Amino acid sequence: MARRLDVRQDLQDGREPFESIMAFQAGLAAGEPWELVATFRPDPLINLLSGQGYAAEAVEWPDESWLVTFTPRGGA
């Protein structure tokens, strides 16, 4: 099971979660997939991590939150 980071509360409170997202990612083992839950589809983050070798699959939940699964290409 992939580790999950939920940043919805940060976003709802007006806090920018980018640094915590990158710190979370840095704490993962090489090749480990992970999930992000956000209040919107984080296309800029998806594009950034795509350039760093991650594939992303984004799914919108019924409550309009987004679950994005990041998987290192060639890993996991």
- End-to-end separation in angstroms reads 11 Å
Strand order of the largest sheet: 1-2-4-3
Count of helical stretches = 3
Number of E strands: 4
Classified in CATH, the superfamily is TusA-like domain
Summarize model confidence as the mean pLDDT. 94
The residue ranges in which pLDDT falls below 50 over 5 or more consecutive positions are none
Note the overall shape: globular
Task: Characterise the protein shown here.
This protein is α+β, with helices and mostly antiparallel strands and 76 residues long. The protein has one domain (3-72): 2-Layer Sandwich (Translation Initiation Factor IF3), CATH 3.30.110. The protein is built from 3 helices and 4 strands; from the N terminus they run E-H-H-E-H-E-E. The model has no long low-confidence stretch (mean pLDDT 94).
Give the gist of this structure.
By secondary structure, this protein is of the alpha+beta class.
